[in-house]
Design brief:
This protein is of the alpha/beta class. The protein contains seven helices and eleven strands.
Length: 250
């Protein structure tokens, strides 16, 4: 699994992300759109656990879910180093989500939802989030918009270098299918000056706001808003990153 190999350099690749400000935005969404006092929070696709830990430090009872064991191991070790021992870590895919009970708030960061590349996968994942949310609980997540696929991904190639390896990322975007294939090569040093190579293909799908709202409504969510930034500026499909808030109706 490529994300197991990328785990050591994942935070370096996403080094520009301000998790504290993002967490402030999530909690402001909660304050604006829900009367529920959120205590139990799900971080879906938690990766190395930066958002999970950020919310845990603010007193929330966190569950972090990711399908990469290496990502979860990094998240768990980081949380333990900070004394955040109460976080529940689960290794699960979006379409096989199975929690021990309901949560008051669900979040998903860094375009995890775009990795659901078929309508069936998207519906299955959203239905499971809906199932484990309390009535009127919020789901706050982001997606990459059309501008990200057409101007940033497109047919470009990127190279990310960290202390533990080098990641080469070649993109192939089809406007017809709205799917971008990522041809990823990871080079990791073995400690003796030699590098081990791993190749894998990952994909993301570009969803319009209209199609995402339709998918949310189909499983029982009420879309409440889409924003282009943490200042609640209304989003359009032409924004690179779109933050969406939806309420669980039952």
């Amino acid at each position: 699994m490529i994300y197991d190999l990328i785990a050591p350099i994942y935070d370096a690749v996403n080094g520009e992300i301000d998790y504290a400000r993002w967490a402030d935005f999530i909690l402001e969404c909660q304050a604006r759109h829900s009367d529920i006092k959120a205590e139990l929070v799900l971080d879906l696709g938690c990766g190395t656990g930066k958002m999970t830990a950020e919310l845990a430090r603010r007193g929330y009872d966190m569950t972090g879910v990711d399908y990469s064991p290496e990502m979860l191991d990094l998240a768990r070790r980081r949380a333990q180093e900070e004394g955040l021992d109460g976080i529940l870590w689960l290794c699960q895919s979006f379409t096989e989500l199975d929690l021990y009970g309901t949560v008051d708030l669900a979040v998903s960061c860094l375009d995890c939802i775009n990795h659901l590349t078929s309508a069936a996968e998207l519906k299955a994942a959203l239905a499971l989030v809906h199932n484990f949310l309390v009535p009127d609980g919020l789901f706050v997540f982001d997606i990459n918009g059309r501008a990200k696929f057409e101007r940033v991904y497109s047919d470009r190639a990127y190279v990310f270098e960290g202390e533990d390896g080098i990641c080469i990322w070649q993109n192939d975007y089809s406007p017809k299918t709205r799917i971008c294939d990522f041809y990823i090569t990871m080079l990791t040093e073995d400690g003796e000056g030699k590098y081990e190579r791993c190749d894998e293909v990952q994909s993301e799908r570009m969803y319009t706001l209209r199609s995402m709202y339709s998918a949310l409504r189909a499983v029982g969510f009420e879309p409440l808003g889409a924003y282009s930034d943490f200042d609640f500026t209304p989003a359009t499909d032409d924004d690179e990153r779109i933050y969406i808030v939806a309420k669980c109706k039952k």
